[in-house]
Design goal:
The complex is a heterotrimer of chains A (340), B (130) and C (548). Chain A is α/β, with parallel strands linked by helices and 340 residues long. Chain A has 14 helices and 8 strands. A 7-stranded parallel beta sheet of chain A has the order 4-2-5-1-6-7-8, sandwiched between helices. In chain A, helix 2 runs antiparallel to helix 5, helix 5 packs parallel to helix 6 and helix 9 packs across helix 10. Chain B is an alpha/beta fold and 130 residues long. Chain B has one domain: 3-Layer(aba) Sandwich (Rossmann fold). Helix content of chain B is 42%, strand content 24%. Chain B has 5 helices and 5 strands, in the order βαβαβαβαβα. A 5-stranded parallel beta sheet of chain B has the order 2-1-3-4-5, sandwiched between helices. The longest helix of chain B has 14 residues. With 548 residues, chain C is α/β, with parallel strands linked by helices. In chain C, 51% of the residues lie in helices and 7% in strands. Chain C contains 22 helices and 9 strands. In chain C, strands 1-9-8-7-6 form a 5-stranded parallel beta sheet. Chain C has a 4-stranded parallel beta sheet with strand order 2-3-4-5. In chain C, helix 6 links the parallel strand 3 and strand 4. Chain C is globular. Classes of the chains: A alpha/beta (340), B alpha/beta (130), C alpha/beta (548). At the A-B interface, helix 2, strand 3 and strand 4 of A face helix 1, strand 2 and helix 2 of B. Strand 3 of chain A pairs parallel with strand 2 of chain B, so a sheet runs across the interface. Chain B: Pfam families: B12-binding.
Chain lengths: 340, 130, 548
């Protein structure tokens, strides 16, 4: 089977095999990507992130159904952590989307982080492109938002949705680890649970801080939070962003708030399209991707050469003996290689 | 290259006894496999389509209701129809010894009956996965 | 003897043990404590914590004379492929003097699908009888006087529909609903946590259950409206303490839902019954039964302020542990079941089902079922275990173990309260995760050899495949679908449509009791699949919480 030819014809197995080649870094993956590249750039990419247990998969399921009702085709990439000890993983997002499996307009692929997070964001970006070339109109990338690595993955998205739920203990403490900054749209899932309104209030306050200044009736926690998040709003203004991320209460399991969430996503997309931010983001992304490939290839090339000639061990021994230092060694290597 | 063995663990049919399927899923993860767990009440069509989208190397199914003579072969046929000839398909559950030859004839690579240690399943997959 | 004297002796003993161990090491993987003495139960107040049979806190049993008056009910759960086959068996049992029937339903019936639904393929009539409509129920109880028998139905998610069908059959026989006796399992929470035959999400399911409580308290007062089941939680891999803790937490949730719906605790609590597993570790099981009664009595008295003694009694049906049966050397299962039976009897169960030796291989044959029943009779008549009430009370070990299990159960119940109750704990996947972790640990212990299962990881032999297993005829499904099609062609389809529309409207109104509407639909021969279909439309379906 010619994977690219078949993929472009709409063969689902070919799409599946292409993603496997990307994920496993098969040699043919480069060729596949080369040939798919001209067919990409059409899909809208939505990143979905949030803490574990926020109901992201259930929400993805409902949003996907809503897009399908609009006649759009959907691709979903669901990422779960790989165990650092065994290398194994339970990829359990799919179980919440079982209802989509028999819809030919939907393609779901589960991926494990497999240790190398830098590599993962690169692989995710390529898997998105494979789905894009296949013809998917909307592509979801769902990942647990627990750290910078996941944030990088979500950077492949046009619009990023952050999903939170009430009653996670120190709500806001959980959020502050970076994921607030990347939210274009906020969704408070399980909004029928206690504490939903409090969470909305706190979020609103953080997001509004710059527009409205200090509010009259702030509790001490709110004040502390305000201080903490002041820099965020400053940063966003520096980017020239006038977008105020909307907050939508949702009960995904009961399909409540889904229409409004889609509206928010569409509004955001319209906003970034009209203001040129979308083009800026996509240019930046293209640049990052190209540099990624460049760095990775140069790195591989140089490491390969050094290993093959046995020089790598030599250099390491010299550095370890303090005969030289890593900076000098690398400078010399660069000089030699670039001469070639 | 970062190849991992990918296994779909599914319960076809309607019985809700998923203790075995869940224990096996965890044991396979601990053996370093990527496990896609799809849970209860999966139709053969859903299992085959999920296997295709996930491009798994192995499909592991468990049935305790007695519906295996009907459902296991159906999954095998659907998977083969989709062009996935190299997927290893295995089954387990309350399955009488006398039913096993027919299931193997139908393309189920191995059938694991009650009392099988999870390590035997792991070893079988490692030895037979393509 | 004073505690000081006992302690002095114990110190001496411990010193001697050290020496003995240095020469003869003990077996690995034993319980932490080697020996129990009066010191282990020195804080247990006999009158408050142990007491007397038939008296609060019922640690020693719920009846004053226990088996000295009457043995436990020997109730054998059985299912046969079609309504006609089952009816034949029921009539045979009644002719032989049985007054209690027990119905097992096939999986499509348990999940609210008709036999002709594509999802039912391969499952019709497999693990029990297929019931699609009132027509099947009429056949099932043909020539059986529902005013005289008591019927136990293992049905949960669609319990309201099957109960309505039973009431409708009785109507046709001229038996008023207030004469009907029996039990429906009706315990949806353990379906989410362990057994897996759920349909709707928890909240509408809880509404259906309280609708049944309310309807039955007025119209079918002799009916046991729920059997709160730990059996399946244990089968899914929980420990003994988890079994009773999660089940009692479920019981608390049902009581709270009923109270919220306006019922008074003493109006329905006497109709609640429980369902325990009898596992392999005999003494731990006896302690579990005793602890469970004490915990429930305290819950009812202290938390719900029940006043009637009957409200505080944990009455229990028991089944021996199916998951402990081995496919290897299956005759050994007879011995396991005998020990489990001994545990249930010494634990003071009100009724018992014993599993058959071949159930790890297939549904049991008649011969195997006979041996399983005989096991109960031998324990009852020959062993002497049923002659004195609560015979293990006062054992230092059993009393200490009873205390320990009670303590562990309270810790879980308190934790579940913190999460917001059993429904919230299930929605969060907490209970499922705890059970899965225990199941995984058990399996790893067996594989490492820390736990020995005879014939499985020790004392294995080469075996011939077993012969003579029961096989269900594959044509059952086809014949059932033909009967269903014929029934649909004959019934008044306009009446069905109207009844289903009425049911739908009632589902949408949370203040409406659904039972009369379901009964109304059942009478028109609307099928189980149609009725559950309407409810699926309004209520949605439960999506499992899996966190491996």
């Amino acid at each position: 089977m010619d994977i690219v030819e078949e993929l472009l014809k709409g063969n689902r197995l070919a799409l599946s095999r292409a993603i496997t080649a990307i994920e496993n870094e098969y040699d043919e993956a480069v060729d596949i990507m080369k040939r798919l590249y001209p067919h990409t750039g059409h899909a809208f990419v939505l990143g979905i992130t949030g803490p574990p247990g926020a109901g992201k998969s259930t929400l993805t399921d409902k949003l996907a159904k809503a897009y399908r009702a609009q006649g759009k085709t959907v691709g979903i990439i669901a990422i779960d952590p790989t165990s650092p000890f065994t290398g194994g993983a339970i990829l359990g997002d799919r179980i919440r989307m079982n209802g989509l499996t028999m819809d030919e307009g939907v393609f779901i692929r589960s991926m494990g982080t497999r240790g190398s997070l830098g590599g993962l964001s690169h692989k995710t970006a390529d898997a998105i492109k494979a789905m894009d070339a296949f013809g998917k109109d909307v592509i979801f990338v769902e990942t647990v938002g627990v750290g910078q690595s996941e944030v990088d993955i979500v950077k492949a998205a046009d619009t990023t949705m952050v999903v939170l739920i009430p009653g996670m203990g120190d709500d806001i403490q959980a959020i502050k680890a970076g994921i607030l900054e990347i939210g274009d749209v906020f969704t408070i899932n399980k909004a029928d649970h206690d504490g939903a309104d409090k969470l909305v209030r706190e979020l609103n306050m953080m997001l509004d801080l710059d527009a409205h200044g200090m509010q009259a009736e702030q509790t001490s926690t709110e004040k502390a939070l305000a201080d903490q998040f002041h820099h965020l709003n400053v940063a966003k203004h520096a980017e020239g962003m006038a977008w105020r991320p909307p907050i939508q209460k949702v009960i995904a399991s009961q399909n409540e708030g889904i229409t409004e969430t889609i509206e928010n996503i569409e509004k955001h997309f319209k906003y970034i399209s009209e203001t040129g931010i979308l083009q800026q983001r996509r240019t930046q992304r293209t640049k990052n991707e190209m540099l990624d490939v460049l760095h990775s290839n140069i790195g591989k090339y140089i490491t390969g050469k050094l290993s093959a000639t046995g020089k790598l061990d030599e250099y390491v021994a010299q550095i370890k003996a303090r005969e030289t230092d890593p900076y000098t060694v690398v400078a010399n290597i660069m000089q030699d290689m670039l001469k070639e | 290259m970062e190849k991992r063995v990918r296994v779909l663990v599914a319960k076809p049919g309607l019985d809700g006894h998923d203790r075995g399927a869940k224990v096996v899923a965890r044991a396979l993860r601990d053996a370093g496999f990527e496990v896609i767990y799809t849970g209860l009440r999966q139709t053969p069509e859903q299992i085959a389509e999920a296997a295709l989208q996930e491009d798994v190397n192995v499909i592991a199914m468990s049935i305790l209701s007695g519906a295996h003579p009907h459902l296991f072969p159906k999954v095998v046929n659907l998977v083969r129809e989709k062009g996935m000839d190299d997927v290893l398909i295995i089954g387990g559950g309350v399955i009488p010894e006398t039913d096993i030859p027919a299931l193997k004839e139908a393309g189920v690579a191995e059938v694991f009956t009650p009392g099988t240690p999870t390590s035997a399943i792991v070893d079988f997959i490692k030895a037979n996965v393509k | 003897m004073s505690n000081e004297k006992i302690q002095a002796g114990l110190d001496k003993y411990n010193a001697s043990v050290e020496k003995a161990i240095s020469r003869f090491p003990e077996r690995p993987n034993l319980p932490e404590q080697r020996l129990y003495t009066p010191l282990d139960i020195k804080d247990t107040d006999y009158a408050d914590e142990i007491g007397y049979p038939g008296m609060y806190p019922y640690t020693r049993g719920v009846q004053p004379t226990m088996y000295r008056g009457r043995f436990w009910t020997m109730r054998m759960y059985a299912g046969f492929s079609t309504a006609a086959e089952s009816n034949k068996r029921y009539r045979y049992l009644i002719e032989s003097g049985a007054t209690g029937l027990s119905c097992a339903f096939d999986l499509p019936t348990q999940i609210g699908y008709d036999s002709d639904d594509p999802i039912s393929e391969g499952e019709v009539g497999k693990v029990g009888v297929a019931i699609d409509s009132l027509a099947d129920m009429e056949i099932l109880f043909d020539q059986i006087d529902l005013g005289k028998v008591s019927t136990s139905m293992t049905i949960n998610a669609p319990a309201s529909v099957l109960l309505a069908m039973y009431i409708a059959v009785a109507e046709k026989q001229g038996v008023p609903a207030d004469q009907l006796k029996g039990t429906i399992q009706n315990d949806i929470l353990k379906e989410y946590a362990a057994r897996g035959t759920y349909i709707f999400p928890p909240r509408p399911s809880m509404r259906l259950i309280t609708n049944i409580f309310e309807y039955c308290s007025k119209n079918v007062p002799k009916w046991n409206t729920i059997s709160i089941s730990g059996y399946h939680i244990r089968e899914a891999g929980s420990t003994a303490s988890q079994e009773i803790a999660f089940t009692i937490a479920d019981g608390i949730a049902y009581c709270e839902a009923a109270i919220k719906a306006g019922l008074h605790i003493d109006d329905f609590a006497g109709r609640l019954s429980f369902f325990w597993n009898a596992h392999n570790n005999v003494l731990e099981e006896v302690a579990k039964f005793r602890a469970s009664r004490r915990v429930w009595a305290k819950v009812m008295k202290e938390r719900f302020h029940a006043e009637k003694p009957k409200s505080m009694m944990l009455r229990v049906h028991t089944q021996t542990a199916g998951s402990m049966l081995t496919a290897q050397q299956p005759n050994n299962n007879i011995i396991r079941v005998a020990l489990q039976t001994a545990a249930a009897v010494m634990g003071g169960t009100q009724s018992l089902h014993t599993n058959s030796r071949d159930e790890a291989l297939a549904l049991p044959t008649e011969e195997s079922v006979m041996i399983a029943l005989r096991t109960q009779q031998i324990v009852a008549y020959e062993s002497g275990l049923a002659d004195v009430i609560d015979p293990l009370a006062g054992s230092y070990y059993v009393e200490a173990l009873t205390n320990k299990i009670e303590k562990e159960a309270w810790e879980y119940i308190n934790k579940i309260d913190e999460i917001g109750g059993a429904v919230a704990a299930i929605e969060k996947g907490y209970i499922q995760k705890e059970i899965q972790d225990s199941a995984y640990k058990w399996q790893m212990d067996v594989e490492s050899g820390a736990k020995t299962i005879v014939g499985v990881n020790k004392f294995q032999i080469e075996e011939e495949p077993p012969k003579g297993l029961l096989k269900v005829d594959a044509s059952v499904g086809v014949a059932q679908c033909e009967r269903l099609a014929a029934m649909k062609a004959k019934r008044d389809n306009e009446a069905v449509k109207a009844a289903l529309a009425d049911l739908k409207a009632a589902c949408q109104d949370e203040n409406e009791n659904l039972m009369p509407h379901i009964l109304n639909a059942v009478r028109t021969y609307a099928t189980l699949g149609e009725i559950c279909g309407v409810m699926r439309e309004v209520f949605g379906e439960y999506e499992a919480h899996v966190n491996l």
